Amino acid sequence: MQHDCLYHATASIDNNKKPYQIIRYCLSEWASEWNIENNRDQNFTFSELRNRNITSQQLYLWSAPIDLIERYQLYLNQPLNSTKTDIETELFYNCTFPWFGPVCQYMFDQYESNHLSFAAMIHDFYQNGNDMNSLTCYTHLQCDRGTSLICLDWTDICNGIIDCLDGGQDEEDCWQLEVNDCLENEYRCRNGQCISKDFYRDDDYNTGDMMNLDCLDGSDELFDDNKRNRCGKREPTFQCEEATCRISPTIDTREFKTLSSSSCVNERGKLLMQAMLSVKENSVNDTCWRALMCIAFTLMVTEDSPCYGFCYPGSCTHYIENNCPAFILLPA
């Protein structure tokens, strides 16, 4: 169960537009084994706050938790002569910066003095480049991709490529989209999905408002790659995340084209390739495997790749001839 959430109003791709989305950053596990006591900061009961004429607005300005502020306002709404309840003894901790939380138990480990707000921290985190070091997984479909290190992403479903080796479940029944008929008041996306015609081309390109995609393949709006590419250094908004990947037709580079979501960025492709590189046939020696991978995955020829300084796609032949068996099974 999620708790102690921080709420962030996201910025639009177009900086002049108001945000239409709030992202929650929450803890997912309760630290039930911790007995947190705060002897550092001042604390006041709701009754003491009321006697000092403290308002809920003041608690908000003091960065008190929103749910605590709401409970305090409910307490203030009670008549003074009402029956005493446990809520009047609830404590508010006046946290010393940079501590925060119900009992001032949290602080940011990478806080910088130029960060005037949580929103500024989020903005700088993505502006400086979010190094992807793990994969998001679609867990509602059992799928064997050959190794437990590789999982199914939601954009892998019904993309025309069989990824599940144990039956191709990721492409099962996807043909129904291809023959799907939409109602008269609906627009048919290229992938067969139906949306209301009210959402077709509903972005205002004259004012630069973009892009609120309703089709998962983005076919209901005109792509503006200059703006879509901003997603690479933006927080994960609907504008950037709710679209499937568009793959580059250049097979030899195997790079993802438009940065339409975190599922499509080059870093995800590199992580998938690194996972496949880690699974080696027992009958193949390391030199052979390394050369084959350098040919198969040219995207990996970077300074942090196993191919760097070893061989490049056009110069690996002699390693293969001298070290590889006649037949070998490669991941794809």
Please, could you describe this protein's structure?
The protein has helices spanning 46-51, 56-61, 66-76, 118-127, 175-178, 225-228, 238-241, 266-277, 286-296, 317-323, and strands at 3-9, 22-27, 42-45, 91-94, 186-188, 194-196. The chain is of the alpha+beta class and 332 residues long. Among the domains are: 37-104, no CATH class; 281-332, no CATH class. A two-stranded antiparallel sheet has the order 1-2. A two-stranded antiparallel ribbon has the order 3-4. Strand 5 (186-188) and strand 6 (194-196) form a beta hairpin. The protein is extended and about 90 Å long. Residues 248-260 have low confidence and may be disordered.
Describe the structure using short key phrases.
alpha+beta, two-stranded antiparallel sheet, 8% strand
Average pLDDT for all residues: 79
Task: Give the number of DSSP strands.
Answer: 6
Straight-line N-to-C gap: 38 Å
Q: Which strand order do you get reading across the main beta sheet?
A: 1-2
What oligomeric state best describes the polypeptide chains here?
single chain
Please state the overall shape, judged from the principal axes of the Cα atoms.
extended
Along the chain, the helix and strand elements come as EEEHHHEHHEEHHHHH
pLDDT < 50 stretches? 248-260
Radius of gyration: 27 Å
| Helix percentage range | 10-25%
Q: Which strand-content bin applies to the residues?
A: 5-15%
Number of helices: 10
SS-derived structural category = alpha+beta
Tell me about the biggest sheet? 2 strands, antiparallel
